[in-house]
Amino acid sequence: MMALLREVCRVAVEVGTFRLAWIGLVDGDAVRPVAWAGAAQGYLEDLHVSVRDEPMGRGPTGRAVREGRTVTSGDIATDPAMAPWRAVALARGFRANAALPLSMHGRVIGVFSLQAADPQFFDAQELKLLDEVAADLSYALEGLEREEERRRSEAERSLLVAAIEQATEIVVITDVRGAIQYVNPAFEKLFARGATPLSGMSEAAAMIPATAEAAAVAGEAR
Prior knowledge:
The chain is α+β, with helices and mostly antiparallel strands. Helix content is about 40%, strand content about 20%.
């Protein structure tokens, strides 16, 4: 996931010509930067953004988290909401700011923040495009989460299968009718089943050792 976030920031700076692009994830009551590109110059190291309705949370980033929508500062130099960050932002050439919420499963989990060198950079057309980017990125993050869950489930399943295969206790899996679907090696060893096919057999029948079963069949034949 981090590789994707870093790439998005890089493209925003190199193609979108933003001064700085960074992505932060909600961490408790704050937004923690995790990926960035451009003229950070220590800006993010000391950055504090709250998600609460307080002075450090009333800028575009904090509001984007609380309100679940894109929030902009058209002119950092005159925007009262940007007072806590104005001096450091202007010193780095940031004159306008936009914060786009990133969501997963209907919940805002982070923000894509963009700093531009020109006041009023974020017009209606630009914001429409950026909203589409944020939506695509949110969708991609959900996809990555699903893939990670799938891989984790497969890994857990592999560990479970290995544990069952190596277990000294017998393990039998049947369907709703009681017909065997699977037995582990411990079962086959205990009841001397070896190469005898057990699929579809009842558990009770399968527990008759193969040698005893063969003897019974031979006796009936006589």
